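About this split. The held-out portion is used to measure sequence recovery: a designer receives only the structure tokens and must propose an amino acid at every position. Recovery is the fraction of positions where the proposal matches the reference. Here is one held-out target exactly as it appears in the evaluation file.
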């Protein structure tokens, strides 16, 4: 109806698009199976009434205020292939949401595969949003580092000491952007300093927990400082000395282990330049956070898919390793066959 009205009365058509989006969102809140309805309304509006996209994107973001990622991020990811510009506008409307679980940076990398100018634009939007909002925690800010430094990855560590993130397949043309990298490092330096001050004012278990994001951020970013901004190394080294105050040996070992694994993942990505090996890389990426899945069934599904992929690639050793992790006896036997 809204699309048809566009030829008769553009103002009234715009109101119809608003009503259609509101209805689609209300259906989605009842049952997520109605998610395609949201995508459809946005996609039709983009084709028929591109001038209204910003207002519709903002309407989508406003409806999603209670969530850290939610509907806006899902919609943007769903639309990247069909309409990268539209996906970028939606992403810009809900920034800085999506940092806590990697939705934002995944979207930026997806855009980079299709239009590097759009991915740079969205990345800068997030940088500005983070700069303007001091309440965004260090562990969320660090997820932006990979793109700034030209690494197809996002990683971070929270106060629990557990890491989250993944390495992705190589993206042609992705490389460090000096301006964006330095802008990110300036923000990160300030946020680490703030995190250290907050930790020093904490006590007991809270103080110990705050060490993890600080340790990881410093260990993860310091090599990039040496590569991107070597003149800033003395200041960062001093910051590292401050960050290490009160850190226990077990905490340092945990973070070092995480950093070692990330470097191994990064090297694996760099050596997988042959496109024929990309499926194996993607399978490994799907396993990054499998142990964090709460349900045995969910974990078994991930292990099964990966095992079958490696078996089809004649990598029987890796396939067997993964089959052994499948807990359900029947599914384990089925995959072995």
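Reference sequence for scoring:
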């Amino acid at each position: 109806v809204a699309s048809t009205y566009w030829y008769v009365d553009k103002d009234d058509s715009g109101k119809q698009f608003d009503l259609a989006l509101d209805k689609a969102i209300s259906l989605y809140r009842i049952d997520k199976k109605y998610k395609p309805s949201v995508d459809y309304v946005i996609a039709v509006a983009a084709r028929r009434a591109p001038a209204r996209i910003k207002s519709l994107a903002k309407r989508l973001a406003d409806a999603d205020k209670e969530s850290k990622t939610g509907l806006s991020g899902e919609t943007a990811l769903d639309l990247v292939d069909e309409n990268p510009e539209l996906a970028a506008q939606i992403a810009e409307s809900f920034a800085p949401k999506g940092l806590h679980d990697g939705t934002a940076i995944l979207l930026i990398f997806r855009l980079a595969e299709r239009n590097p100018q759009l991915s740079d634009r969205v990345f800068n939007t997030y940088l500005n949003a983070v700069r303007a909002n001091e309440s965004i925690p260090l562990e969320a800010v660090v997820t932006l580092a990979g793109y700034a430094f030209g690494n197809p990855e996002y990683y971070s560590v929270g106060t629990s000491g557990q890491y989250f993130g993944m390495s992705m397949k190589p993206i042609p043309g992705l490389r460090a952007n000096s301006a964006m990298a330095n802008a990110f490092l300036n923000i990160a330096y300030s946020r680490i300093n703030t995190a250290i001050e907050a930790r020093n004012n904490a006590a007991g278990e809270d103080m110990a927990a705050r060490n993890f994001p600080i340790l990881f951020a410093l260990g993860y970013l310091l090599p990039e400082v040496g590569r991107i901004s070597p003149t800033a190394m003395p200041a960062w080294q001093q910051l590292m000395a401050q960050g290490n105050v009160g850190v226990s040996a077990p905490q340092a070992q945990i973070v070092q282990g995480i950093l070692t694994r990330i470097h191994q993942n990064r090297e694996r990505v760099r050596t997988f330049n042959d496109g024929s090996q990309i499926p194996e890389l993607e399978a490994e990426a799907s396993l990054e956070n499998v142990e964090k899945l709460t349900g045995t069934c969910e974990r078994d599904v991930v292990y099964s898919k990966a095992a079958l992929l490696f078996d089809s690639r004649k990598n029987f050793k890796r396939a067997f390793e993964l089959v052994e992790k499948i807990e359900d006896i029947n599914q384990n036997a089925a995959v072995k066959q």
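Annotator remark: Residues 144 and 158 are 15 Å apart (CA to CA).
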